[in-house]
Every structure is written in structure tokens, then in C-alpha cells.
Amino acid sequence: MKQNFFAVDLGATSGRTILGTFTEDGLNLEEINRFPNHLIEVGGHFYWDIYALYRHIIDGLKLAAQRGESIASIGIDTWGVDFVCIGKDGNLLRQPYAYRDPHTAGAPEALFARIPRSEVYGKTGIQIMNFNSLFQLDTLRRNHDSALEAADKILFMPDALSYMLTGEM
Predict the structure, then answer these.
(1) C-alpha–C-alpha distance, residues 60 and 74, integer Å
(2) Angle at the Cα of 95 (from 99 to 40), degrees rounded to 5?
(3) Candidate CATH numbers 3.90.550.10, 3.30.420.40, 3.40.50.2300, 3.40.605.10; the one for domain 3-166
(4) What is the pLDDT, as a whole number, of residue 130?
(5) CB 15 within 8 A of CB 56
(6) Mean pLDDT, 10 residues at a time, over the chain (169 residues)?
(7) Apex CA 12: angle with CA 96 and CA 128, to 5°?
């Protein structure tokens, strides 16, 4: 029995969708569409254009549907540190900061002034890099970021795109 799975692979500068098909003979992978992933620069900050990424994913799904392919499941893979702030009404509060944005310069040191480095490492086990989610969140907190202050939920990029596709968090 043939079964199709739709994969979204997002990199820092481009993305693609792939149709994976399991048949009795094995797995077949076929690229459906490839697209650019551009950063948006506004006011000295860099953001991911999540709405463009969503549109490209929809384009890939439409191409698969035009071929008459049914999709059993969708998987989304992105870089791991960036997130979207979601308001109480379920709306995205703004475009997500990109990990390349300079707003987290010096962020580890600012956090370590309050919490010892060894304690942070002991709890997270992650390499100390200024763009890690922890440092992004602490930077937004210190800067009284309006999106973070209004956020009811925070979704990492794959989860945010999945939410945009399905309405489910």
C-alpha cells in the first residue's frame, strides 16, 4: 500500500518540500518545491518572514494535491532556537526574531550576572551561544519586549508553522 508523507526542510537561506512515499518496494523521496528564505531587516533587527515560509509550504502542498497525492502526515524541520510569540487570541504577535539578529550580543554575560554559568549549563546542558533560546528570551525580558510581554504562548518555528497549517498548537 502506497503512503505519502510531506516533509518541510527549512534552512537559514532556503527551504524545500519533499514528498516521501512508502511503497512495497521501499521509500521514494521527491523534491516538490524549493524556495528562498529571506531575512527581513527592519529597524536594525532581523526577522524570519514566517508568512512567506507558510505560503511556500502551501504552494508545495498544492503541487502535491494537483498530482492527486494524499498526504498521511506532515513533518517540519528548521533551525532550533527561534520562536514565535502567540497572543491570547491565538494570533502571532510579530515576525519572529532570527537567531542572526544582534539583539542578543552579550546576552550570556547578562544572564550569568544573575544565574551562575555552571547552574545554567547544569540545567540545560547546551553549549553557550548568544542566540540560544534561553538568551533570546532573557534579552526580550530585559528589554521589556511588547510581544513577549503580551504572549500567552511561545511556539518554536516548526510548531508555529504547524499551527498556521492546522490551527492546532
Answers:
(1) 11
(2) 70
(3) 3.30.420.40
(4) 95
(5) yes
(6) 93 97 93 97 96 98 94 95 98 96 97 96 94 97 98 98 97
(7) 75
Cβ atoms of 34 and 83 within 8 Å: the answer is: no
At residue 2, the pLDDT reads: 86
Q: What is the pLDDT of residue 113?
A: 97
With residue 124 as reference, give the H or E element that holds it.
Answer: helix 117-124
Q: How far apart are CA 21 and CA 36, in angstroms?
A: 25
What kind and span of H or E run contains 14? Answer: strand 14-23
Would you state the torsion angle of the CA atoms of residues 129, 54, 90, 98, taken in this order, to the nearest 10 degrees? 20
pTM above 0.85, yes or no: yes
* DSSP structure class, residue 72: S
Q: Read off the amino acid at residue 158.
A: P
For residues 124 and 24, give the distance between their C-alpha atoms in angstroms, rounded to a whole number: 42
